[in-house]
Design goal:
By secondary structure, this protein is an alpha/beta fold. Helix content is 32%, strand content 22%. The protein folds into three domains: 5-101 and 134-171 and 258-400, Glycosidases (TIM Barrel, Alpha-Beta Barrel), CATH 3.20.20; 409-610, 3-Layer(aba) Sandwich (Rossmann fold), CATH 3.40.50; 623-679, Golgi alpha-mannosidase II (Immunoglobulin-like, Sandwich), CATH 2.60.40.1180. The longest helix has 29 residues, at 225-253. The chain starts with a helix and ends with a strand.
Length: 682
Amino acid sequence: MTIDKQHRRAAEERLKHMHQQLGGFAYGGDYNPEQWPRETWLEDARLMQEAGVNLVTLGVFSWSRMEPSEGLYDFAWLDDVMGILHENGIGVDLAIPDAVPPAWLIQQHPDILPELADGSTFGFGSRQHCDVSHPVYRAKALALTERLGEHYAEHPALRMWHVGNEYGPVSYGPWADKAFREWVREKYASLDELNAAWSTDVWGQVYSDWEQVHVPAQPRTWSNPSRRLDFHRFTSDSMLRHFTAERDVLRRHTPDLPIVTNFMRFFKNNDYWAWAAEEDAVALDIYPDPREDEAHIAAALNFDLMRSLRGNQPWMVMEQATGAVSQWSVNVSKLPGKMRLGSYQAIAQGSDAILFFQWRQAKGGTERFHSAMISHAGTNTRIFREVTQLGQELKNLPQLVGTRSTASVAVVFDWDCWWALELGNSPRSDLNYPAEVLRYYKHFFHANVPVDFVDTKTDLSSYDLVVLPASFLLGDEAAQRFTDYVAGGGRLVVSYLSGIVDENNTIRLGGYPGALRTVIGAWSEEMHPLAGDAEQVKLSFADGGTGSAGYWTEHLHAEEAEVLASYGSGRLAGFPAVTRNRFGDGSAVYISARLDEGSLDRILREEWQQADVEPVIDAPRGIQARRRSGGGRDYLLVLNHNDAPTGVDLADGGTDLLSAQHVGGRVELPPYGVLVIEEDPK
């Protein structure tokens, strides 16, 4: 996604000014003083200073307190809180609380509640209980935004605006239905064009009047995948339009303040490439599950994705947990040191803010067992000691803020691909797109090869290697972009289930992958997903090596491409499994099966080595290293994700900014240990 240079520069200046006011990294989290008496507010301000907090997010769930009845605004309590925070040197990220329409508004307009696909209504008592297409909801939310913008524009504590919270509710109700129809009419010039794009002659779904077009509510069996794809696009666009309307109100009042909303880990409903282009910074809510051995790798993918969404601009951890969360069936707390390690992992991958949900653990409500910076047990706790240690450490690292990372490998992560791939009615409806991307990403992670993420619209010319995992949907322009990239000297790796459909979710004819057949120099005549999870076929590599594949295979034919590996057993024995094609000045590898981890690592490693891509450092498994640069200095962050001491060789020495000690050569990191090294000048 290309972001206008003027917009990028303005956003960077707003963020730079905010961090200057904060004195470096943003550190703190959500603060909900309305849940506590005023004497607690005073104690909180003192404890925030002790913990190194310099920024808190206020008001996320406070619409009912800010506007207790229609048109009656009460900001007195908020004025008091913000005054206390300002007096104690703590900045405010002020929220627009439109994620929680108050009870009085729902009572007056019950049709604001979103309607689910099965026709049932999402009830009051949770959050995101709104259809963003509802005109009264939009008007009331914008009116509150206007009042907040007017009232707090000059407040000395205000550092940033936080619009909404975890946008994502999908409605199939009458207001969404009307808005979807308008969106469709704007996209398609005529009903003939709509019918062609949606292939409506299949199952006799032809539209003869625009009023016949409706949201794809739950059908008896299956429904049109092209129509459902457009509904995904509409819902993301609809929510984004609401965000930008509120953003524009705030921009009029405070043109120099950053405006953001918070994204979520692997969230499907919103196209974050489009959203990121409309914000001053990307902000992420990230909750890795401590039960998962590789949770830190999935977190790393999300961190690199967030860093990439605005073209390698520093981003923000808006929410994370100090310990346990409350949304899973088993909520395991983080081991000692893991919160600190995860925070530095985000910093290593470009974050300039470490914020938590939340400051003080709630004593009631749904999230009463969600951990916080201050737990139910108070401040004489391991968690508060770790929170305070991290806050004090970050005060000593202002030189890292604003520094950037570089990568010469790009991996495609595209919401259109995600939506189209997971709509069902395909040879494997159980395929999980983020999991497929993660299968490729983790080989680069383990090797400490930095990765940028791109969508199918990104200029690829700066990358030495590009990977397309399960990029199911490729429009004509995207297909040409990848073809031109290879012809110009790039190296491309394409996995199965890529290039299958066009932008309308219509199959490309002439063999799979239709959009990329020419550039890969091979084609599949038939897909052969394997029947059972345990079913495996053998692979024979051209150099005599062996491997295996499961889950997915294809009846592949090599045309111009050379065969790197063939199927060694099963119904496709003897047919190509992996190919490489020289095309123009570059090459393209096609992987037609889900390879075992060793075989996939072998293919990817050979490609990045042939592209002269170097890891940050050579290190044992479990050691992550990333470099940030700026101001004429380089900073190497080295993290030990292992639960045992692990040695690592540092070829170039420098000063560890956490210990103020010079390090170099062989260094042993303790379990979950971290080094932040300002490297010696070369």
